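Schema walkthrough. Field components (list of strings):
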Amino acid sequence: MISLSNVTKNYGKNIGLRNFSVTLDSPGIYCLLGRNGAGKTTFLKLIAGHHNASSGKVTVNGNPVDMLHMPEQVHFVASDAEHFNMRIKDLFKTAKELHSQFDIHFATEISQRFKLDLNKKYEQASFGMKVMVNTILGMASNKAVIILDEPVLGFDAITRKNFYDLLQDCNEQKQKVIIVSTHLIDEISRVAEKLLIIDQGELKLYADTTDIDEMAYSVTGPAKVVEQLTQGLHIIGAKKVGGFVSQYIFDKPIEDTDMVMVSPLGLQDFFISLVGEE
Amino acid sequence: MNALAVAKLNFKKVKLSYFIFLGLIGLQLISYIINNLFNTSNEGGFSLSFGFYSYFIILISAILIPARNFRKLMNFNVKKLDYTRGVVINYVVFSFVISLFTAFCYFYLDKSLPVGTNGVVANPFTVFGWNNNGAIVAFIRHFVFLFMVALIVHTLTTIQGTWYGWLTNILIVAVISVFTPIASLRKVLVSIFDTLIFTPNAVIQILGCLGVSVVVYILCVLAVSRKRI
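Field assembly_structure (string):
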């Protein structure tokens, strides 16, 4: 469905993405992780046709994507999206006029669930509410691909929980690709089915979250025993305390022994181990 | 379909230009009333036709649409081609309505302005000499001219902030400042303005304006396609 093939994106001397290849071919919720400036927004904007690749090819449903030929089936919700200062219900009506497949009933229903005042003008809404309106505009767009760039910025804990429920509802309602870029790793792990990790413009990892649940773990114990036990495994990080060591592994699971403790690695620890120890 | 929806939204979201137009007319009417009250009438004087004031609608819209509406339309995930087609609909409609209004001013409204029998009301049809070929031709000449000007202003606004925008600004200033003082070069400028505005030959002027409009539209599409959101 979405394919990036050897894509490089330069901003002058800075590199956004470097020889990046990935294919997202099944519907579901994709979580995009990366440090600030890793290339997440560049990746998303290339798919949405907001940027042209410096080299390589971006396709959506087999059609090449560029800034003039933005893909019909992609809805991109920018983190800093601004809208016309009209009542929220009029924004939904406008979206319906611009895109006949926009589901205005779904948008209204979700707004009520989030206690949004539909008669409020966009500029009068709080920052969190604006982000919510932007997100609802995307979710109700009925497009095959919905891209949310940092959608939970400005949400309080309860709104974030509702947002993740909304993501799941939206995903279950109609099969689609939903790509969410976020820094709140453990929260998104509740709903994400696949994980993409970008670091310094390169794809560091593309895996199912279930694989990570099974294959990401830490082994803690005396240094010599741990090193012997994890020999040949994919070690993504380590921490030493005195004669003890904790090694973070992303590989086939191993059994607990009397000498070492094997414990699952949370998504956040996994991410930090993978990209944070540079 | 999407282009029509884009055009409709743009019409709603350039209210500032309508207010400026109405405000100018209001101020002009107040000036006539004050003159009348204080017996300082403008008999034998000069007045601008309201047709000229209506230019503000299309000119300010051609700035507001790319400067303010573009990004918001893109946040609705409007395709850039739909946006540029929608913009053309906006300027065609604006040009048509303003030309109709200018014709109405030319035939009726200008005559009721209090400038007396010796006074002059400057209407675009007479100022540019377009009325020499009859009202319908004057309407068409006015229409294509406004359409061309709107596209030029729109495209110039679109490219602001880019290196080619700055280059264009410098080129425009350079051409004006170099061409104006040198007689032979000045003739080139004059001939361009003659062809696009003042020529008595309506066909040349209409084709000239349409030709420039097509070129500017293509440049506009290129500029929009490169414009970051």
